[in-house]
Amino acid sequence: MKTRLGIIGCGQLSQMLGEAANRQGVSVAFLCLDEIPVVQGLGPIFEASDLEAFLSVCDVVTVERESIDDVILQRVRDTVGLAPRYEALVVLRERDTQKAMLDALEIPTSPWFCAASREALLEGMAAAPQSALRCKRTLGGYDGGGQWRVTSAADSAQIPDDGFPVIAEAEIAIERELAIVVARDSDGAVMTYPMTENVMRDGILIGSLVPANVTDAMTDEATRFAHSLVNAMDYVGVLAIEFFVTEERLIVNEIAPRVHNTGHWTIGAVGADQFTQHVVCTLGGKVREVSFAGAAAMVNLLDDKFPATLPEGGVRSLIQTYGKGHRKGRKVGHVTLLGLDANVIREAAKNLIDELHGAG
């Protein structure tokens, strides 16, 4: 297994990847692009202008987000190597190519089309049987940003000219939201974590519950979709798939080719959390077994809101903050709740969510 990991990005995902690397005895270096770094003390930090120096201390490079300049990604690919593969990142970072891949693999999504301009959107709307569309930037626009609900030609005016191209998805009745985190190593071995049931507010993930409210058939189907996706791309590392449940069937909402907020609960809950798994797989090691018993929940901390008290009665609480400044809607940390009784953990998570984010 290689021993020197480079990470592009200096946000909280890089922070947790760096901590996992340090625990594994792996040296780690960071390439800081446009963010304020919160990875101090975990390894050397390089600016984008120091790309070659950064690459000189890396055996392989991974990323904390998809939207990275192609010039950087291609240089990394052509020198030390990139994990996940460049081709996978390029396909999955754009919503239209992501959806097209899902269609090719016969993995269900909401009906969609891509509109390169406002005129193309209006033409597509005229032909769409649904009365409401969810329009999203093809690149970027997460946590509820860069997304618009369009029901008429007049509504399309809310999308700025630089918001195009967009994908326009048929609006569906969402019963609940789920996610699965999957890891694959360079030998093709695949491991999935238990599914999470996600709690959302205004398009922002505020909590995840494990075990999820799913049938065995749903778990089997999600696992099959995850295996199909990572194997088709020869993917190496951790990937997250977000699902909507509609009429008790799964459809894919989005895919993130990286470690993901819905997997934060794995820190302290399983032997090989998502960050450890990603570090090991990207460095050429074998994917590790996932061992989990009991129940867990993760609640995001936003803005300057922190819990006044923590749950008791057999609930173990882990708090991680990211060292970030407060800003409305910004994720500054999370709380993980662990225990044996799923009902107790769910109730404790609900109470914490209500305290921090208001009753849903």
Question: Tags for this entry?
Answer:
360 residues; alpha+beta; Rossmann fold; Dna Ligase, domain 1; D-amino Acid Aminotransferase, Chain A, domain 1; 3 domains; nine-stranded antiparallel beta sheet; four-stranded parallel beta sheet; 9 helices; 28% strand
Please specify the SSE layout and strand pairing.
Elements: E1 4-8, H1 12-23, E2 27-32, E3 45-47, H2 51-56, E4 60-63, H3 70-78, H4 86-93, H5 95-104, E5 112-115, H6 118-127, E6 133-137, E7 147-150, E8 166-170, E9 176-184, E10 190-192, E11 196-201, E12 204-210, H7 216-232, E13 237-246, E14 249-256, H8 274-282, E15 295-302, E16 316-321, E17 331-339, H9 342-357
Helix pairs in contact: 1-8, 4-5
Structural features, described:
This protein is of the alpha+beta class and 360 residues long. It folds into three domains: 4-82, 3-Layer(aba) Sandwich (Rossmann fold), CATH 3.40.50.20; 111-170, 2-Layer Sandwich (Dna Ligase, domain 1); 176-357, ATP-grasp fold, B domain (D-amino Acid Aminotransferase, Chain A, domain 1, 2-Layer Sandwich), CATH 3.30.470. 27% of the residues lie in helices and 28% in strands. The protein is built from nine helices and 17 strands. The strands form three sheets. Strands 9, 10, 11, 12, 13, 14, 15, 16 and 17 form a nine-stranded antiparallel sheet that branches. A four-stranded parallel sheet has the order 3-2-1-4. α1 (12-23) links the parallel β1 (4-8) and β2. α1 (12-23) packs across α8 and α4 packs across α5 (95-104). The longest helix is centred in the middle third of the chain and has 17 residues, at 216-232. The N and C termini lie far apart (46 Å). The model has no long low-confidence stretch (mean pLDDT 95).
